[in-house]
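can u pls check wat happens w/ FE2/S2 (inorganic) cluster
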Amino acid sequence: MQPKLTAKARCSDGEVGKISKVIMDPISHEVSHVVVQESGAMRLERCVPIGDVQEIVSEEEVVLRCSSSEFSQYSVLDRDQYVTPHEVEIAHLEDNIHVEPGEVLVPLPCLERDVPRRTFFTNMTHAIGALIALPLAFPVLKYLMKPMYKPFDNAWFDVGNSKKIAKENIGYQFKFTRGFKEAFMPEQQIEKNIWVVKATPEVKKAVYEGEDRKFYDNKGDVIWVNKANSPFIGFSGKCPHLGCGYKWRRTKNFPDGVFLCPCHLSIYDEAGKVIDGPAPRALDVLPLDINAGGEIKVIDVEYKAGVKNQIRLL
Ligand code: FES
């Protein structure tokens, strides 16, 4: 005979509560504990090993082998450490136990004990969902991430003729238009500019320090070399501080002229070196090519603003 749920539980010195659940061993399908809900205000549920059940007098009454004070030493049921047989499939349960299925508990498998019960099932559901969704999401992710791996655009742009630059060591601005396509947006035409200096030997030395300047593509291959003795030097029109446009200006302190960025007042000399302000590095020298007729071409390389070292973005 098995105890019926709601059967009274009696100790040697009186009634202590009623059977509210039973715990079964998932392997043997035997009842391992009865859960007795205390009478009184707290109504705690205590787990009593089946071996401590002295007698099942009837389906209505169970006698425990303890006094009521010893009964209060049994552990309190931690519901998160158990599941119902609905949550774990147990074959032939109904053949072995004869109480309401909803009131039968089975201990959680050891590996899952430390995970709160609901969290475990929630995580499991999410994991299965992710596994199902992954093959569907992969082509979409691949498509979305494609622009991140686009090779640098090393196209040359015609910007104008060097004959327009009459004097040495002054900044001369050339404007040009570049088609620009951001991720999945339609291509836009953007006005860009480059400052070119007809450099004296001193300025060339300050920029190149006697060495040709190499430029690289994504793979690390050299795409162009600016010769250290080339008479013209081109600087990107973007201030390396935060990317604002700057101008060539004569000021009281710099009557011969400097590159002045109005955004945060970075000041650069004719070799692009920082004289004052928050700029973290010198103006960015660009790949420049000039043909025999003086026509200037540039690769519009863009570097990350706000950092000390040049990190190529485009
Ligand atoms: S963007 Fe030029 S100084 Fe800040």
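Residues 88-97 have pLDDT under 50 and may be disordered.
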